[in-house]
Amino acid sequence: MWRRGFIAARKLSSSSSEIPTLYSFLQPSIFALKRPDPPSLDPPKPQDSQNPYRILSQDSQATLESTLKNSLLSNNTDEAWKSFKTLTNCSAYPSKILTNSLITHLCLISDTHNLKRAFASIVFLLEKNPRLLDCKSVETLLNSMKVANTAAPAFELVKCMFKNRYFVPCEVWSNVLIDISRKNGSFKAFVKVFNENCRIAKEEKLDFMTPDLVACNAALEGCCRDLESVVDAENVVETMSVFRVRPDEISFGFLAYVYALKGLEKKIAEIEGLVSGFGFSDRRLFFRNLISGYMKCGNMESVSQAVLRFLREGNGKDSNFAQETYCEVVQGFLEHGGMKDLASLIIEAQKLESSAIAVDQYVGYGIVSACVSLGLLDRAHIILDEMNAQGGSVGLGVYVSILKAYCKEQRTAEAAQLVTEISSSGLQLDSGSYDSLIDASMSCQDFQSAFSLFRDMREARAHDLMGSYLTIMTGLTENHRPELMAAFLDEVVEDPRIEVGTHDWNSIIHSFCKAGRLEDARRTFRRMTFLQFEPNEQTYLSLINGYATAQQYFSILMLWNEVKRKVSVDGPQRLRFDTSLVDAFLYTLVKGGFFDAVMQVVEKSQEMKIFVDKWRYKQAFMENHKKLKVAKLRKRNYKKMEALIAFRNWAGLNT
């Protein structure tokens, strides 16, 4: 009996190409309890000629139903399936609730073997006892088939429902079959099922089987895009009219495609009038499909006319097609037209485009960006050269898309050269474009291109320079190029649009000191003070550490003399004399043997109530001046001797 159900399922397909697909889905057999055993497709041998099935007693049937129910509760799928098969093989059926619970259970396991069981169960019930089948179970199975992407069985199931007059609302199966069709790239099979559903709905007058707009559009897509049939498409439109399904922009878009493909200009004019009549203001989708249709048949002249007509109708303010459309256009011109025609299209489009729209909405930008996305940057250059050869002005959209490609590929030297060309042509990039180019240049350590771009940015009178300025300074700092930082800062320091601060000079001084380039650090320090930037504690700490590393302690003494003048207890504070600065001066001056200056620092710290840890400086003295005798100093330098004694007393070295 189950084998007969299986054979019936195989006979459902009207297309011989679909039978092997369905057959492979159902193999190996799901009917044997022991899965490795191959099935036999022969009908079961009857137990006697009068009664081919064993009749179950009421007690036996109740026991099997109880076993089925308990197996489902305990998730014992194989035992549940065994009980169900035993019942149905004896011409008995579980209750409707149990039957549908089993089907739902089999569908939700996410297992192909049990999905086959669910499919076979529903096919069998459709043939033998459809009243037991709940519509929700069919929907659950279809959704599981969508997840498993089993296209042929899903379509066969719906056909089986039609054959056995098991009618359900269209949306129960249509959305699932649409998703499966889209995933598999063809709506041909959907069109057949859709037409059969509509035939039944009309003949049987079953309003609940009326297709919705989504299903109608899917059928139109199959007729127009896959079958490329005007007759089939218009039949779907007629069906929509019968069922009072109002078309939308998508509906007219598919019709535009097939009419353009077949060169039916009068039909195109008719549906254009309908688009306006239905009040659809956004005609982008219509023109996109129109362009695709012309592209498919190689009518490049009509492609150009459609693009330009769309611009005219939108007053040059609405030309933002999707990248997919621009890619189609580029590929079409490469196959059927040429770069000259493509350049001419951009030139003509620029004449119609409004200057008020954003750069990335220009046709030229879209076409060149499509070239880039297709890996055809060299063709973008050819378009640019061809536009120049034709004497047309090159719009900013063309340039910007090429510049973005340069950024992505880190071809920053070429980008900088192109920016110079853009500036010389009288066009002006926005700050965001400059920022992106400069960031790309710094990322690949092309510092000269970054400087060139920043100069162009300043000359273009861009207002927001700080973003790119910080990008350059940060990149140079990370790459340890203080000499370039100094040159760059010196070039821009007087530009009022750039807020240069002490911290910028500190970064350069710190980098020079860290690299041991103390003369450069001193030169930067002098330049900083000459331009009236006030050094702070970080400036002096960097210099102290640099001098200490080179053991230039006298230079540290000179720094102290300068700091001493800036630090005042009573007057205004020109410098924050904090613990870190006190510690740096004390430690290095002790190591250098300038004890008079050491005691000056100590006195100043006491005045300002800054805590000092004497142990660190005592250690520095013992490491560097352990053998220094007071008696010898008395004979040579009395003042130095007094300073030494004062330090020893302060540090506790005389105890």
By secondary-structure content and strand pairing, the structural class works out as mainly alpha
In terms of DSSP E residues, the strand content is under 5%
Shape: elongated
The percent of residues in helical segments reads 55-70%
The biggest sheet, with number of strands, parallel, antiparallel or mixed sense and barrel status, is: none
How far apart lie the N and C ends?
A: 113 Å
Low-confidence stretches: 1-24, 26-53
Keywords: Repeat
Pfam family, one: PPR_2
Family: Belongs to the PPR family. P subfamily.
Domain At1g68980-like TPR repeats: 55-209
What features would you describe in this structure?
The protein has 655 residues and is mostly helical. Helix content is 70%, strand content 0%. It has 35 helices and no strands. Helix 5 (96-107) packs antiparallel against helix 6 (112-128) and helix 11 packs parallel to helix 13. The radius of gyration is 43 Å and the shape is elongated. Residues 55-209 form the At1g68980-like TPR repeats domain.
Please provide a brief summary of the model.
This protein has 655 residues and is mainly alpha-helical. Helix content is 70%, strand content 0%.
What's the SSE blueprint?
Elements: H1 2-10, H2 18-26, H3 58-73, H4 77-89, H5 96-107, H6 112-128, H7 135-148, H8 151-163, H9 170-184, H10 188-204, H11 213-226, H12 230-242, H13 249-262, H14 265-277, H15 284-296, H16 300-313, H17 323-336, H18 339-352, H19 363-373, H20 377-389, H21 396-409, H22 412-424, H23 431-443, H24 447-459, H25 466-478, H26 482-492, H27 502-514, H28 518-530, H29 537-549, H30 553-566, H31 579-592, H32 595-607, H33 614-625, H34 630-636, H35 638-651
Helix pairs in contact: 1-6, 3-4, 3-5, 4-5, 5-6, 5-7, 6-7, 6-8, 7-9, 8-9, 8-10, 9-10, 10-11, 11-12, 11-13, 13-14, 13-15, 15-16, 15-17, 16-18, 17-19, 18-20, 19-20, 19-21, 20-21, 21-22, 21-23, 22-23, 22-24, 23-24, 23-25, 24-25, 25-26, 26-27, 27-28, 27-29, 28-29, 29-30, 29-31, 30-31, ...
